[in-house]
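Hi P.,

Sorry for the delay on this. The queue was packed all week, but I finally got your sequence through. Input first:
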Amino acid sequence: MKPTKFLTLASLLVVFAMLFAACGGAAPAAEAPAAGGESAAAEEAPAAEEEAAPVVDEGQAASVTTASDLVPPIVAEPCGDDCPYAGQTVTVIVNTAGEKGPISGPFYEVRDEFEAATGATLEIVEVPFAEHFPKLLTDLTTGTGQYDTSIAGAWWLGDLVEGDFILPYDDWYNAEGFPQWDIEDVQPGPRSLLEYGGKKYMVAN
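Then the structure:
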């Protein structure tokens, strides 16, 4: 332990000990007999109420669920010997948050399933939030092709559509093989963020 940390902890310990001693030193004075019977009873009443007050553990009803406790369902079967994208790599760009992050985490959770179902390798590239859209847009406008897919904010949709960098999925919405979900399950406000110009582009997460 560094000397400064030790001195800080030692100082706090001394202060705590002094406060504890001060509280303990006040106890005999409180036990001294009162001058009158009524005043003594009045002083004893609050003390009795404090002693009778139940101790409530505010955290006793709380429970903690970690990401590792939840196992996502298998929705794509392994491709076996007939893998359509064997030997290829799919690169996705996401916000930096690690394997347990709210945005990047799901990609790590489904990576094994995705690779088993397609034969492709899923490469997850994490970048800081402030750099995400600039990096993606630069890659799209220059045609570099560094990223194959990306998590996208709804506020990016105008730039992506007007730049002709994204396709609507209306034609595949009810098609066999397209992930089945009902856009009407999304509340009207958030639902409007999934569409642009009357066409569907994004899905709710």
